[in-house]
Amino acid sequence: MLKQIFLTSILILCCQPLFALSTRGSEEISSLHGKVLNTYTTTSGESVTIRMDQMSKWAFGLKYNSMLMQGLQDHSHNISKQDVFNQGYANTPTKMTVDMLTANFMYMLNPHISFMIMSAYLKKQMDNQNRSGQEFTTNASGITDTEFFILYNLLKNKKQSFDIHFGISLPTGSINKKDNVPAGRILLPYPMQLGSGTFDPVIDIEYIRLLSKTLSWETEFNTDLHLYKNNNHYALGNEYAINTSLNNQFNSIFAGFITLDGASWGNIRGANPELNPLASPTANPKTQGGKSLSLLLGIELEGQKGIWKKQSLQFDIGNTVSQYTNGPQLKKSWEFSVQWVLR
């Protein structure tokens, strides 16, 4: 599946007229009204979109995202809590919410090279139930891993733009979060931790093409590689994502878009010796991988005058339309985000 995602992304990119690449002149893609659009997918899976004025050298953005996971799934089938207990687990998750505030800053060195730094504050809450029917909730919050990118533009003209982003994820997020449960204070399982605990390479490939004066198409491939084990003796599974969007600029203020977002993530390699894999599916390193496909709809409002000039607001809402898991996991449901950008 991971190989299929990678080959599909390359096929999508190559099917466009990239062999007519011409970087002559300074004809830069006007991502609908003189903005260069760049999308970056974080290691936690969230996309951050920045539109930069051709005259701007920098941009700062804040994005709030909320996601709900509810109900249980094993592979492609819905399961009950009792099904989880029948597999030998002492506890099962029943619901999880994730709230995140992401901050990012980008600086354009020249038309071909830019730099970006990005981090977030993350809050996770998981509802659980044990075999006896007792319900309990665990919480974790704090700073996530911090990402630093070097962005290089390979192609930019009036009709299309092709970029590659090389980055590294710094292990600033905790992998030792604890909370109280009926059995006492414990180390929280893998999905409740805030980072990877390792220095991870991140690669983004992005292609944008104008289809008309108001319509554009964009596709992005992202990979986050976890190459070695952290101090707790495990490595997160490698993460791959591909998304494609159709964007329409209705006027100078209002734009809308629709996005298909596919993701694949592997099982954990190794294991934290403090976690009992039969305590809960969330503590089993062999049941953490999966794949998903989500559909999102969104709008963007662009400031034109006064204090709102060079500012934009973006709203989107989405739902998971397909999911496959490597074992008992919570099902992804809806997600919502709002983003503000100052250029």
Description:
The chain has one domain: Autotransporter beta-domain (Lipocalin, Beta Barrel). Helix content is 6%, strand content 58%. The protein is built from 2 helices and 20 strands. The protein is elongated. The model is unreliable at 1-37 (pLDDT under 50).
Number of domains: 1
Low-confidence stretches: 1-37
Going by CATH, the homologous superfamily would be Autotransporter beta-domain
| CATH architecture annotation | Beta Barrel
CA-atom Rg in angstroms: 21 Å
The assigned structural class equals mainly beta
Main CATH class: Mainly Beta
Q: Compute the number of strand runs.
A: 20
String of helices and strands: HEEEEHEEEEEEEEEEEEEEEE
Write out the strand line-up for the largest beta sheet, numbering strands in chain order.
Answer: 3-5-6-8-9-12-13-15-16-18-19-20
Q: What's the mean pLDDT score?
A: 88
The share of residues in helices is: under 10%
**What is the third-level CATH name, the topology?**
Lipocalin
Strand content: over 45%
Termini, distance in Å?
39 Å
Write down the overall geometry: elongated
Number of helices: 2
For the sheet with most strands, the description reads:
12 strands, antiparallel, barrel
